[in-house]
Amino acid sequence: TDSTLKTKSAKVAQIPNFTWFDTAAKVPTLTTYLADAKSMQTGSTKMIVQIVIYDLPNRDCHAKASNGEYLIANDGVNKYKAYIDAISTAITAYPDVRVVAVYEPDSLANLVTNMSDSNCANAHDAYLTCATYALSKLVQCNIWLYLDAGHAGWLGWASNQDPAAQLFAQVYKSATPNRVRGLATNVANYNALHADTPDPITSGDPCVDELSYAQAMSPRLTSYGFPANFIVDQGRSGVQNIRNAWGDWCNIKGAGFGMHPTTSTPDSIIDAIVWVKPGGECDGTSNSSSSRYDSTCSLSDAKQPAPEAGTWFEAYFEDLVNNANPAL
């Protein structure tokens, strides 16, 4: 009913955003997106379909809010392979439509830092098996893959950089040739691309923003034989200094839509600024009785009450619109 909010909200629909395939049931719609993109192409102008591959068995092993549909113990690896096969088939059918894919947010990063969690330790081998399979199947000449690499406040710490680079290189070399272009950072997070004044929560981390994280990782990745190119999610990074701790990730209060997607970036190692996380989709529920409840979603810097992860959170979307920087 607010005409100004309505006008601003309509502008969000015109900003390119990645589409998440977080269940196998959604994969048939990929064909629709690809067909639509093909119909829009004229002459030598190519359309890009942006997707997120996100359905690992025992997904998000160190959090509860975004647990997936497959379990390793219930033939999850083979079910995941079928999921990848379906994505591969759809992409193969549209060779003249370009596809950029972010591969499995949080998965490999968890294998770097959270192996003391038995859930992650038990998922380690399956994650790597699934990643190798995905890289071996998604080899079409019209796809470019970016492995998810967490963010500056996760793998940017000095002690995490080298183990992370080694793991990414291990995965990269497990299936060659492949179509991996580089890494995706800050997916569904709130970090600045370049912070003029570092957020106090970054104290002690040599990487205070996503630019410094990419620049720190680049030589390490190169030394291990991994292509050091990046895309950076800025979809919800319009407002800074709003978290109590860098590890807080759930529906952060005061957030706003951020820098719009562009290939004009501050360093050539960054291919593009993108919007990966759909701004209106909830990070996780604040309902402590829910089976997918994560206590992070009840912290003082998390907007509440919040619905289940992945469902529409209208009040949060309106905040993102009103707090957008640049303004919509």
Write the layout of secondary structure elements.
Blueprint: H1 3-12, E1 19-21, H2 28-40, E2 48-53, H3 76-92, E3 98-103, H4 107-113, H5 118-137, E4 143-148, H6 152-155, H7 158-173, E5 180-185, H8 210-223, E6 230-233, E7 270-274, H9 314-322
Helix pairs in contact: 2-3, 3-5, 4-5, 4-7, 7-8
Structure description:
Helix 2 runs parallel beside helix 3 and helix 4 (107-113) packs across helix 5. The protein has a seven-stranded parallel sheet, with helices on one face. It has helices spanning 3-12, 28-40, 76-92, 107-113, 118-137, 152-155, 158-173, 210-223, 314-322, and strands at 19-21, 48-53, 98-103, 143-148, 180-185, 230-233, 270-274. With 328 residues, it is of the alpha/beta class.
Structural class: alpha/beta
Number of helices: 9
Question: Low-confidence parts lasting 5 or more residues at pLDDT below 50?
Answer: none
SSE order: HEHEHEHHEHHEHEEH
Distance between the termini: 18 Å
Largest sheet report: 7 strands, parallel
Over all CA atoms, what is the radius of gyration?
Answer: 19 Å
Helix content: 25-40%
Estimate the strand proportion.
5-15%
Q: How would you state the average pLDDT, rounded?
A: 96
Write down the overall geometry. Answer: globular
Strand order, sheet with most strands = 1-2-3-4-5-6-7
Instruction: Write down how many β-strands occur, each being a DSSP E stretch of 2 or more residues.
Output: 7
